[in-house]
């Protein structure tokens, strides 16, 4: 009986400490330091075209205070924007939320101000998880990597430091890999333990990409999310898009979208009309160092297999036409080059890309697809070794 009494007391105590969610909606009470008589806006968050981001509410800061009232269908990340110059993000939910803002507490050249949020369970969970992930980088064990970073900064101004920096980079590569693995696993562990909370979607964030995750991981984490997590703007507009591009729309075995772009002479080139048994469609840009570093090997492959029906189609994206032409001349790349002109729609997430790059879901450079003469995708973003092996298999030598 005595033990039962203690358990009941403990349950009552913990229950009284837990914040009660206001199912009727949210009330956001804010205090602002060093700014008054200007409007603060509550806007949708997540990864999406900026032109489609809606303003949920807008009120004037009076005597250093503001208040928003409303209701959300599910918790999600939102933006607070002050004077269209300062902003901050937090996870909103139907509860009583308090926010303290000081717009003077922000990094130079950064629009994000310092603020404190209480009253949102998902936001508190997100902040704790984010801090735990970032703590990996503060571990004294990796202090040498800070030295390496500083050395590369020096090398940008004085190239005499470059050789030393590159040598140290090689020496510290095991440490770099270890830190990256720890950081990744922190994220993964949190998501696996909280698959239904919107905080998990934003902790994983842009880490959910083909360049950082294996195909198995992309599939695992897409299917892991449940409930409110799958309703978030970020899950719908980023994670779902990456997943569908990789496994459905532009996965191995899919038919690549046809396109027509102008070549160096200004003549239209249509993908489906290129006479080749196998085509490597390579998205690149003049400013992309890894792209241009891959060209010498691609030259070798083209020279080896061009008479047997292998062709490379280089698609420049997020680039200036003059820089594109200059890079081709400098690198002496002999394959077909076409230019994917920048999307002129202002304020969109794909404003720096062309329509073809957007349609192919290009989120990083280089991005490449090996396909047959019917545009059936054989390899997606193959490594140097994977491409070599596949071409050897296809051509028999």
Descriptive overview:
The strands form 3 sheets. A 7-stranded mixed beta sheet has the order 10-9-13-12-11-14-15. The longest helix has 21 residues, at 173-193. Helix 2 runs antiparallel to helix 5 (173-193), helix 3 (143-157) packs antiparallel against helix 4 and helix 5 packs antiparallel against helix 6. The model is unreliable at 1-20 and 345-349 (pLDDT under 50). 40% of the residues lie in helices and 23% in strands. It is an alpha+beta fold and 397 residues long. The protein has 13 helices and 15 strands.
Keywords:
single chain; 397 residues; alpha+beta; seven-stranded mixed sheet; 13 helices; 15 strands; disordered N terminus
Quick synopsis:
With 397 residues, this protein is α+β, with helices and mostly antiparallel strands.
Outline the secondary-structure elements.
Blueprint: H1 2-17, E1 26-33, E2 39-44, E3 55-60, E4 65-70, E5 76-82, E6 86-92, E7 96-106, E8 113-118, H2 121-138, H3 143-157, H4 162-171, H5 173-193, H6 198-204, H7 215-224, H8 233-249, E9 260-263, E10 268-270, E11 278-284, H9 289-293, H10 295-305, E12 310-316, H11 321-331, E13 336-339, H12 355-359, E14 367-372, E15 377-380, H13 384-395
Helix pairs in contact: 2-5, 2-6, 3-4, 5-6, 7-8
Radius of gyration: 26 Å
| Strands, total number | 15
In whole angstroms, how far apart are the ends?
A: 81 Å
Which term fits the overall shape?
A: globular
